[in-house]
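DATA SHEET
Item: assembly model
Revision: 1
Owner: S.N.
Input lines:
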Amino acid sequence: MTAVRVGLDVGGTKIEALGLGEDDTILARTRIPTGWGDEAVIAAVHDAIEALAAAGGFAVADVVSIGIGIPGLVDAPGGRVLHAVNLGVDELDLASAVRARIPVPVAIENDVKAAAVGAGSLRGDAHSMAYLNLGTGVAAGVVIGGMLWRGARGTAGEVGHISIDPRGRVCGCGQHGCIETFCGGGAVMKAWGRGGELPLRDVFDLAEKGDPLAVELREGIAFGAAAAVRSLVLSADVETVVLGGGVTALGDRLLDDLRDRLRRDAAESPFLASLRVEERIELLPAGSPAASLGAALVGAALLHGENPHTDHVNIEADTAGADIEPEGAVHG
Amino acid sequence: MTAVRVGLDVGGTKIEALGLGEDDTILARTRIPTGWGDEAVIAAVHDAIEALAAAGGFAVADVVSIGIGIPGLVDAPGGRVLHAVNLGVDELDLASAVRARIPVPVAIENDVKAAAVGAGSLRGDAHSMAYLNLGTGVAAGVVIGGMLWRGARGTAGEVGHISIDPRGRVCGCGQHGCIETFCGGGAVMKAWGRGGELPLRDVFDLAEKGDPLAVELREGIAFGAAAAVRSLVLSADVETVVLGGGVTALGDRLLDDLRDRLRRDAAESPFLASLRVEERIELLPAGSPAASLGAALVGAALLHGENPHTDHVNIEADTAGADIEPEGAVHG
């Protein structure tokens, strides 16, 4: 019998699950479809844990803690989901519902904050970093001294809704020209409006062919991402910003655009140049288990008697060099 | 004999000095003109300490620590001023120069960061706050858990140089539309360009009479200040933002404009409304000794063996309710 810490990254379409063994090796990763609405989400969480146990060759009874990352507003101390529009969940005591069938400590955390913990752990250096998620929306998680920084009211790292252009497009939040309207996948796809299987890739491809809207949107992605990184550096002053999320599936094409933008802006501003922002960014590798690993670490923090009611959750960056399966090995 | 902790706020035109007694009462405050250039600044610092001792009825030999807030770039661990354009100082080992005549621990800190420490101390609650200085330039100091938050490279709180309008005026830093170009006293006075004894007051007065440039600049001040406050809330998520600096001499007129702006923006954005930003701002009272008191506390931290080389300087908020002289009692 082994003690397994489970982490789940619950997305709008799939749940990624990960089991962390006693020696901080990743025992297994699985992926199953997400449900819609309270009951379906609860059922999918249990299904994911059972599938994970089967894949990892352990029993559900071996699970000692569960951490769940959720896209939306959560009450982390209370273990409740408050508003997760992509899951059809409005208010749900998810921790209690999971504990009713698996009686172990269960932590609920915002998915980006959980991913920040995982990204810091994977880097092996979480002294001062942010994980900037360029997904459907844009948000960051801040990790300082190895600990998740929540802030006074849990909005630390919400740089996606800093407005950077008063004449910009209206954001889903109601403001104009939020960072998210430039580099959030949802806003870019809406502005693009042409559909297609990989619309963001189309934007990058057609920008190279001179399509005016594609050029504007592609430049906007770098403009917004640069502003997001700089906002994190100029306010929280994190040493490193790790970028992840769906938009970063564009990989080096996105990173090159972003670095180019940061360099051009720095060339006009000695102050910006002194910040050396372009040296402080890195991309989360494709297929990284940061989100589910981070969720597992958030759940495991409950085992150590750490108090998730405080601003800080003590999650040690102790899984650096953990045995990560390559993306291809993730079960579909 | 008493043990006096001295704090100096060195400005472009004057030095404010404060002596803190053993029971955390303010023994005396004085104000003398600043010098220009290395030697004159060093001499003025000594003159200020001698004037303070005379005013407070103590001997310079009673001074046990000195903290100096400097407007510009400082190497706090090294006790050096790196770049203080308003003082004509480019690189100066000020701590050593002061210690050569008064052999006690001497700390050098950026003036806004020092003021943040002082403002937190005066509030009696420095759990999670920022001090936002709307002076010639715009910058903030962040205090978390009673400790000054410097960040990884000392740029935490530098929100003045977040660009919020790509078509905005060119900032002294080289970027366009920085927050500082909207609500920094220097940028506003330059854009106003009409001189006068109190140009910012003129801007507010003439805006009420419908002067188009005055209206634009006055609205810009609230626009920029609102963006600065929101950037601090959306990145570091501090519970409270205390505003100070020369621009806040406009008092309630500024605060009313800012609250109005925050309320109007919140009316368009449920997300912003949920942050309740307008309830989280307050004004540093006129004549507040926050800057010199903060400098004294930064200097005193050296006495307790606290290591200013770390990201955090432990400065306890232990002078709440200290016996502050009213502004009228400050010596000219």
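QC remark: The longest strand of chain A covers residues 26-33.
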